Amino acid sequence: TEAQLQQAQKMEAVGRLAGGVAHDFNNLLTVIRGYSELLLARLQPNDSMRKDMEEVKKAADRASGLTRQLLAFSRRQFIAPKLVDLNALVVNMDGMLRRLLGEDIIDLCAELAPNIGAIRADPGQMEQVIMNLAVNARDAMPKGGRLTIETRNVTVGKGPRKDAVGVEAGVYVQLTVRDTGHGMDAETRSHLFEPFFTTKEKGKGTGLGLSTVYGIVRQSNGTIVVESVPGQGTVFKIYFPLVSEDRPGASGPGETSDPAHG
Ligand code: ADP
């Protein structure tokens, strides 16, 4: 629709702008980090300036982390796409996710369909997508709840399909991250993928989590769709094109990396 097109163009423009700024900043930050390291190495262990210099370096490191997230959003980051089995990736993250969520109040539930095949993506970026969505889900459930991660194959036909608006016809691996949190209103939903948009209190949110997710999904030729009901919860559905019916690493000489992109 017209509105979707406008939104996509806006995101592209914001991405280009953010990417340009982040790229220049990152270069400058590299200089600040480099020299603060150098100075720290030259200071005596008991020098009174050490603490101040450490603060400078810490701040520069944090800033550099933020610009890296912005670069991911704007596709300027170096990535190494491979064939990825999302099921294996989710299973691998289990321990980390449980620690992140605080198991006592949030239930983690994985519903992984068998043999969903492979997508082409950067595995590190896929982990970042799941992490960022999980952090948001946790923040939306301060009193506890359930986080469900689902994978399955989905065929989107040419006809209208209510739950996959904006997704082209094709065969996909669908990754769903569902929470039973506070949900969001229409206003929040319409800005949610923009860099620096946050409803979290100062110091808690950067507003970069979902813009990073959006950038990564686009880079992987995927589409992300969100459904949310205030007071009931939120569902993020990501559609990645299916590129191989086989699981990478399964029997046979299946392709596991792509020299042209690696
Ligand atoms: P941040 O988490 O730093 O605020 P994000 O880009 O990750 O930045 O998220 C932007 C905003 O989208 C959040 O501040 C919140 O209002 C909303 N949001 C994201 N995920 C959820 C969710 N699972 N449930 C409710 N609101 C959400």
UniProtKB/TrEMBL annotation:
Keyword annotations of the record: ATP-binding, Cell membrane, Kinase, Membrane, Nucleotide-binding, Phosphoprotein, Transferase, Transmembrane, Transmembrane helix, Two-component regulatory system
N-terminal signal peptide: none
Statement: the UniProt record of this protein carries the keyword Transmembrane helix: yes
Protein's UniProt name: histidine kinase
Chain ranges of the Histidine kinase domain: 20-244
GO biological process terms held by the UniProt record: regulation of DNA-templated transcription
Localization terms from the record: Cell membrane
The organism's place on the tree of life at top rank: Bacteria
Phosphoprotein is among the record's keywords: yes
GO MF terms held by the record: ATP binding; phosphorelay sensor kinase activity
Gene Ontology CC: one annotated term: plasma membrane
Chief location bin: membrane
